[in-house]
Structure formats: structure tokens, C-alpha cells
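Backbone-to-sequence.
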């Protein structure tokens, strides 16, 4: 959000409106995801003493809905900005959150017996399951 905007690609007004709506949706997902963790919410990816394995609400659809919301917000801002530098920043954020989520998942699997099963049936960020052919 703090990078300079540019005109690397044209952005129609309708797309800016859609990106604004997606930004609001992403922020809502982040708030709902954080609220769903209750006292288990921490600033670090380590589960605290109050952490519980959450598999309902938004956590039924994605293992990391807070990260999902953040990615939606940043992707929306990137598209609406029409700027290559922001696109590169978004790519770096996707990489960072993937690494962070994998590290966090290792700790969650150590802490919660059912985490491996939950992770096997629930996507990491995007609540879509693409079917793989056998």
C-alpha cells in the first residue's frame, strides 16, 4: 500500500470498484479469522497456551484464513494500482506467507493430534480443491 502507484497497465473503473469490494471482503475475512482464534490469537506463528485446533467457521474452508484475507487485500490493491512494483511485492508476500504457513503447520501438527488429518482435507489459503485425476 505504501509503494508508489503507476500506470504500468490501465485499470478500468469497474475493476477498481471490484477491487475495492474485494479489499473490504479480505479485511472482513481477516477480522473474522482472528476473532475465531479467540485468546489463541498471537502475533507469532507459534500456538500459545490458549490455542485450540479450530476446524469450524472460516477454518473449515482454509487453514489460514487470516493469511487468505491478507492475500486477497494485497492482490486487490495490486490489480487496482496497475503497477509492476506492487505485483512483485505481492509475489514476495505469497512466498513469505507460504514459508511462514509451512513453518507454523509443523508446530501445529506437533501440538494438536488431529492437525495432520485437518490439513489433509483443508486447503492452505484458497478454499478450492482442484480434483486430481488418478
Amino acid at each position: 500500500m505504501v509503494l508508489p502507484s503507476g500506470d504500468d497497465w490501465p485499470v478500468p473503473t469497474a475493476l477498481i470498484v471490484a477491487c475495492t469490494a474485494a479489499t473490504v471482503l479480505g479485511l472482513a475475512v481477516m477480522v473474522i479469522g482472528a476473532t475465531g482464534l479467540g485468546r489463541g490469537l498471537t502475533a507469532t506463528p507459534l500456538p500459545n497456551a490458549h490455542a485450540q485446533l479450530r476446524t469450524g467457521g472460516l477454518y473449515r474452508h482454509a487453514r489460514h484464513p487470516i493469511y487468505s484475507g491478507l492475500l486477497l487485500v494485497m492482490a486487490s490493491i495490486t490489480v487496482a494500482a496497475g503497477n509492476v512494483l506492487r505485483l512483485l511485492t505481492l509475489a514476495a508476500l505469497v512466498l513469505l506467507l507460504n514459508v511462514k504457513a509451512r513453518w507454523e503447520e509443523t508446530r501445529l501438527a506437533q501440538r494438536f493430534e488431529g492437525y495432520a488429518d485437518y490439513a489433509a482435507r483443508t486447503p492452505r489459503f484458497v478454499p478450492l480443491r482442484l480434483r486430481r485425476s488418478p
